[in-house]
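Student: Send me a single protein entry containing the residue sequence and its fold in token form, directly below this note:

Tutor:
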Amino acid sequence: MLAPCGSGPAMGGGTIARHFPPATPLVPRRLVPDYHECANAMAESGLDAEPAHAHGMLCALLSVRPQGAIARWREELALAAGTAAPSPRASSVLDRLAAATRASLGAEDLGRAVEFTPMLPGDEAPLAERGRALGQWCSGFLYGLALAGAGEPADLPGDAPEVVSDLVELARLDRARDVADEESERAYFELVEYVRVGVMTVYSELARARAGSGGDDAPQTEE
């Protein structure tokens, strides 16, 4: 049974489990690469990062320092793999994933509700695989925060420290061994929704903080 270190949307006292307006996609769904397309393209190019971890890292970089975030993300992936550049196919997949993620997090239009969800294996994948991928996604997000120089979690604005604290706990799912049953499936979907809303909260809190300080606020033109 899936046994997270919290209770899904109620984690951390529930203060960040706020409701967002219905999602409105800005990027055609057919153009957004899925988990397995990313995994295959990255493997073919020698990029050995897990797709979920890579996507979590990208989301954190976009949240902290949107200007230059995608270029920094691609550099980090290449550095970790010891390769100068991904293959043309992998590069295309990464470009589409980055563009869709930047739009869905609101870097193009902070005032508009858009569709965002962590990139994870589809529902057809075994629960254990999905649970590990969710843990890897959270681990990637935490790594991205550190890479972007976000500072101590407790010093982040608004509800962001609470979210980050919970993501630290959820990152432990990377080592979980789960048994699929109805209760575990329900717990998994609640955790995914918690992460989705929590990351949107972190993004929004950091964007407001940048705007208030006159920093590199989104939107930005990615080089």
